[in-house]
Amino acid sequence: MRLTHYDNQFERKTFPITLVCDHIYFQQNIGSIFRISEAFGVENIIFLGKDIPLTPRKINKTSRSTHLHVPHQVIEETSNLITYLLKNNFEIIALEIASNSKPLKEVVIPENQKIALLIGSEINGISDELLKVSHQIVHINMFGNNSSMNVVQATSIALYEITSL
After folding, report:
1. How many CB atoms lie within 10 A of CB 27?
2. Who wins on pLDDT, 4 or 108?
3. What is the domain range of residue 81?
4. How far is residue 97's CA from residue 117's CA, in Å, rounded to a whole number?
5. Could you tell me which residues come within 8 angstroms of residue 68 by beta carbon, excluding any fewer than 6 positions away?
6. Cα 124 to Cα 130: distance, rounded to the nearest angstrom
7. 70: in domain
8. How much of the chain, in percent, has pLDDT values that exceed 90?
9. In sequence order, which residues have a C-beta less than 8 Å from that of residue 97 and are 6 or more positions away?
10. What are phi and psi of 147, to 5 degrees?
11. pLDDT in tens, 70-127
12. Is residue 6 part of a domain?
């Protein structure tokens, strides 16, 4: 018999993961980022950029009200974000295909350390400034002709992998 949302036996848990969204502006993606973050117990979301469209009415269709349950903030300047991440001793992990990236399955999660998982914009990915301060750059192995996937799909795979370790 299929269980309802209220009948499931999943353990409620929060992981020391801050999801950093580098200039993500599409409202459907923002809503879905809230939803997947809530599902995987993400502690906090940081939206990097100016004028991030966090209008609840517009993102609620995909967030299914999870934007009410996941703490989030906006940091407008990349330099301020970098200062925040370094000052708070995050293990900075960028999800990006790069010349020095390694497969996601090889990610190393240090014990008792907060993680900042960086995800990139729909158009430009993660900025070079953020890649330079990342401790690890990981990519998702893909086997078709396409070399990228939607940011929410990629985030879902990465959060599943990181929270399963």
Report:
1. 19
2. 108
3. 15-164
4. 14
5. none
6. 12
7. yes
8. 81
9. 125, 139, 147, 148
10. -110, 10
11. 999 999 999 999 999 999 999 999 999 999 999 999 999 999 999 999 999 989 999 9
12. no
3-state SS, one letter per residue, for 49-104: CCCCCCCHHHHHHHHCCHHHCCCEEEECCHHHHHHHHHHCCCEEEEECCCCCCEEH
What CATH number does residue 78 fall under? 3.40.1280.10
Domains of the chain: total: 1
Domain-embedded: residue 100: yes
Which residue is listed with tokens 């330099």?
A: 79
Amino acid at 24: I
Mean pLDDT of the chain: 93
The two three-digit tokens of residue 71, written as one number: 């703490």
Other Cβ atoms within 10 Å of 29 Cβ, number: 20
